[in-house]
Structure formats: C-alpha cells, structure tokens
Amino acid sequence: MRRAQIMAQPALWKSFKEYCAHDVELTWQIFNLLAPEMPRSEFKVMDLVLRCAVTPVFHADIPLLERHLQEVANEKERLLIEAGADKAIL
C-alpha cells in the first residue's frame, strides 16, 4: 500500500504510525546496545552510507549527456543512410 492509501483509513494510519514509532524505539535500543562495541571511526562511514540511501543526490553532467545524445542521433542517421532506409517507413 502507498501512504495515501493508508492515510485514507484513519484506524490503519494510526496503527501504522504506532508501529513505526515502536520500530524506531527498538532500533534505538539496539543501537545503544551495540554502539559501545563499535569503533568510533566507523560511525562516520555508517553515517555516509545511510545518507546515500536516505537522502540521495543525483548529479548529472548535462553537457556530456547532451553531446552523447547528439552523437547517438548522428549515428542513427548515418546508419539509416547507410542502410538506404527511410525513417518514416521504419
């Protein structure tokens, strides 16, 4: 189910929020139990890995992609000419 579907049912939405809050509490307890055994240097690595999953940022090289698009279009055109094909017929 999607969020909107769950929210459309007030009782289900309430129980879902309670379930999530309980899950967070259990996770916090597990963390506090295991954290003393973990090297502090690993915390930064774990933070970075989690941030990649939770708040991803996609960077694209737009000029490179535009050049590649033009190259693909040119190659398609060249292949059509070489094959003696008409784009409208294909």
Structural account:
Helix content is 74%, strand content 0%. The protein has helices at 3-7, 10-34, 40-54, 62-83. It is elongated, with a radius of gyration of 26 Å.
List keywords for this structure.
90 residues; mainly alpha; 4 helices
What is the tally of helical segments?
A: 4
Give the fraction of residues assigned to helices: over 70%
SSE ordering? HHHH
- Give the total of beta strands: 0
Percentage beta strand:
under 5%
How would a crystallographer describe the biggest sheet?
none
State the end-to-end distance.
42 Å
Summed over residues and divided by their number, the pLDDT gives a mean of 93
What does the overall shape look like? elongated
The computed structural class is: mainly alpha
Specify Rg, calculated over alpha carbons.
26 Å
Model regions low in confidence, pLDDT < 50 over at least 5 residues: none
Secondary-structure blueprint:
Elements: H1 3-7, H2 10-34, H3 40-54, H4 62-83
Overview in brief:
The protein is mainly α.
